[in-house]
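so i finally got all the pieces together for this one. its two components total, 223 residues if u count the protein bits. some of the lines might not be protein, just check the labels. i wanna see the whole assembly predicted at once instead of chain by chain like last time, that was a mess tbh
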Amino acid sequence: MKYFYQFIVVALIVTVLAVAFVPGLDDWIEQTFQGYVGRAARP
Amino acid sequence: MKKGVNVVMKIVKQAIIIFLCLLLIPATAVLTAAVKQRFADGPNRVFSGGPLVSGELHTGPEPDWSFVGDIPTIELQLLDPPRSRKIWVAEADGKLYVWSGYMSTAVGRMWKRWPVQAERDGRAVMRINGTRYERQLVRITSGDVLDGISAAIADKYPSQTSRAAVEAGEAWVFEAAPRN
């Protein structure tokens, strides 16, 4: 499990940096999130 | 027997931990994107943007709002809190209206917080076609005026916002009145 936790920490750091600096990635994430929330919010 | 149960419990516990850790990755991506948008001049899609900074501030007489019929979404910022989002807009009888659906579901109320904030303090700025307009959001909860608003909304969008939905509290409608 130790290596798994290390992998998760690295993955989280890479995720933050990628979303912050890779052009268009934040928009794709927002679009995907919008789809899930839209479906969940329907009565 | 007891040893077997312990092994199974340990495997289940580790599986849950692995699942939760993996879930952290998309959750972090969403959180990062949301925080990043807060520092932007306006919204993008669903995440709130920062204050509307760019664009000329409209002064002078009330515009002819019929031009919003060709505009799919506008940017709306409340003064308190100073966050912005993209919303649908409609014009009826020369007045400008914005609204929010999903107000009767728990997820909708968590997602759409601006209507509650706007009811508390209706001072707002709208950016339409790059021009900013200072407005006062006034909630409309009932009345015949909702028939005209609902018709204007239905003409423009595939929306289920009707007078009955508004009066039932499922959708919240605001007139974007001039701010004095």
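The longest strand of chain B covers residues 131-140.
The domain at 56-178 of chain B is CATH 2.30.110.10 (Pnp Oxidase; Chain A).
anyway lmk what u think
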